[in-house]
Amino acid sequence: MTECDLLILGAGPAGLTSAIYAARSRLRTVVVDTGVAGGQVASTYQVANYPGTDGVIKGIDLVNNMKKQALDFGAQIDDMQEIRQIDLSAEIKKLQTAKTEYYARSVIIATGSVPRKLNVEGEEKFTGKGVHYCATCDGAFYADADVIVVGGGDAAVEEAVFLTRYAKKVFVVHRRDHFTATKSAQEELFNNRSVEVLFNTEVKAINGTDFVTGVTLLNNKEKETYEMDIDGIFIYVGTQPQSSLFRGQVEIDDYGYIITDENLQTSVKGVFAAGDVRKKEIRQITTAVGDGTVAAIMAGRFLAGLKA
Amino acid sequence: MKVTVYSTPTCPYCVMAKNYLKEKNIPYEDIDVSANPAKAREMIQKSGQRGVPVIDIDGNIIIGFDRNRIDQLISQ
Predict the structure, then answer these.
(1) What angle do CA A143, A147, A150 make, to 5 degrees?
(2) CA-based nearest residue in chain A for residue B32
(3) Consecutive 10-residue averages of pLDDT for chain A (308 residues)
(4) Class of A131-235 per CATH?
(5) Among all residues of A, which ones are annotated catalytic?
(6) Interface contact B50-A134, CB threshold 8 A
(7) Checking CA distances to B31, which of A210, A284, A287, B8 falls within 20 to 30 Å?
(8) Which CATH code for domain A2-114+240-303?
(9) What is the CA radius of gyration of chain B?
(10) Quick check: helix, strand or coil at residue A222?
(11) Within an 8 Å CB–CB cutoff, is residue A211 touching chain B?
């Protein structure tokens, strides 16, 4: 049984930043995560746009630095926990995990998001067997092979370039006729000789025997379906917020994002939200860090009885 | 106890898994499958798939950084 002033759910950049601020304010701070600390940044090979890092830091180094900083200031981080239930209704909030219970006077929800699936036939069957969601993890298996990257945002475009260090050919398949990725990332992609872009194209099915051997593609402009032989497919079609645990307890929008006011207070007093799980326009590491700061300071004021 | 970790150099979960074993003072053989195609095939054969990390503890295969399963096996 653990009692604390502030319970932070999620140890990504938002949660870790909250932990740094809260611990420095001498709040008894506990961070709980279902996986390892680091969130999505941990599996991002390189982060080029985080200010103060020379434009090139490994994602895992960035989050390990944040984690160390939070621990050094006295936060407790309980990762790899199996979450069972949460109760935000009373003055003392309660979290039930497989191992123990946590009781907190305030909570910050910083659970972030997870990769969205394509939801096509064969995707689940071949996960790990040709279907992947982490290029930095599994790209090395496709040396001299042909792979497809599905998606049109920053992750798809950047990880496609990453894959060219292994793959013979990288096909980027996107349903629109243009990418939404940052211009500089797009430039790097279009200049890469190992990349071929297939716009207006959707993956309709993933096929194979023991492992993936090909995909069924649809050109949504010509309305033509065709088969393509491929060795692997890396899916980067967006993310969805991890908010199901809080349904019915805090106000959540139609897309699953948690609604907050300007001070990151949710519909429940003493419960705040920070980072990708929040309803907001822009989701970046820097905005997650900003949210984490505000949420921690507001939680501190709430606990001190001041008007947040 | 013989522990083998199959990993790739840019895989963050592989780093976490190896750090965890170090923390627990468990010696392991570190195999970089991106540099060794024969070992890559061995890993695929043992685990039936191509996701890293794959951890072999005395023949028991763990796919991904599954800390609970690692704890289970190293305590035996």
Answers:
(1) 140
(2) A140
(3) 97 98 98 91 86 90 96 95 94 95 98 94 94 90 95 95 96 98 95 98 97 97 97 95 96 96 96 97 94 98 78
(4) alpha beta
(5) 134, 137-138
(6) no
(7) A210
(8) 3.50.50.60
(9) 11
(10) coil
(11) yes
